Fold Glutamate dehydrogenase.
Amino acid sequence: MVLPHEPEFQQAYNELVSALQDSTLFEEHPKYKKVIPVVSVPERLIQFRVAWENDKGEIEVNNGFRVQFNSALGPYKGGLRFHPSVNLSILKFLGFEQIFKNALTGLSMGGGKGGCDFNPKGRTDAEIRRFCVAFMRQLARYIGQDTDVPAGDIGVGGREIGFLFGAYKQMQNNWSGILTGKGLSWGGSLIRPEATGYGVVYYVEKMIEKATNGKETFKGKRVAISGSGNVAQYAALKVIELGGIVVSLSDSKGAIISKNGITPEQVEAIADAKIKFKSLEEIIGESVSAFSGSNSVEYKAGARPWVHAGAVDIALPSATQNEVSAEEAKALIAAGCKFIAEGSNMGSTAEAIDVFEESRSKNVWYAPGKAANCGGVAVSGLEMAQNSQRVSWTREEVDQKLKDIMYTCFDNCYETAKKYSKDTTELPSLLKGANIAGFLKVADAMFDQGDVF
Ligand code: GLU
């Protein structure tokens, strides 16, 4: 059920349902229609008060949430977002996406999402710690390693996961894998920080290989990336490692455009400063040596990178939802962009997706976030597996498993699109393939478990 005041959830729901309807799935198997009204209502919605003490000794109050959307495939799994925009519509859209994304990883994870309308920007470490303790005081009773396993998302990284985990452990007298994204010395998985960004790039490797019959790779490709958080940073580093040229990054205040390509040193400078909530504008002003000479960048205040990035082969939206408009989609295509893959969740507006999908006949290929960015939650699933066995796998082992998951996810989207899609373009719709493949896995489990009959 979609309520009228839930625009983001409505958008995520429409994307799934129109992908299913615009395929042969319901003609071939009408029983799956019955799943839609069931799968689109969360199993449970939890909302709670988070009252905490700021550095001035004053009380501040925020709204905390956890959406336990679907547990057919495993414990609820999905991140926590701390951002002033957080509301039920946004968390329902994220939780809904997460169900099908987690299914596409091939691992046993249900879908959930949570967070708070708390704005961490500009807060001291002590305030963030007290906020996390207050948040966990409420959340602790609803989660568990076999029930619901949250992780990070926008505004929640390693520091916050540490404070949240410590608070849980103190309250419950129990050390278990109730969160993923933990520190490497206390139950975290190697490659988890890198996983979403690396995973997007692994997925796009397969897109390039398929579209060019193995003739091309990332080498020499100009890649526009938005965002400058965890996903964007590691996507950029992997692109650079594979010989691509990263022409942009951005934050909520503006974009940086680089003619010669962002360097790993620049990414590192950005990563260090972003933990302290510095803006890109401040960072390029302060890290003068990293951003000068042939490494200088152009700063575009108040802008997203898409129309400013110049010639582009690949675009990786990796900031937040609805960060590519139809006009920007058209500009990207006019600039030569052939591959678009979302590191963010629902990075493109519905209208932008229409532009990309209509251009598929001209070899423009779009991959939705629920497929392209599933690497983050996939390595969360691997972190859960390691915690259950009380072991830690090596970097190489986890990276190889991540690659396999992304490649298999791509093949699954590709084959499913070929099987069910009605259009006859050379490149099948990964939008449809991802939605249908994710949906089918969840729907079959729901039939088996009597959730739908
Ligand atoms: N927030 C991430 C996502 O959107 C990761 C979730 C997780 O690791 O549980 O998939």
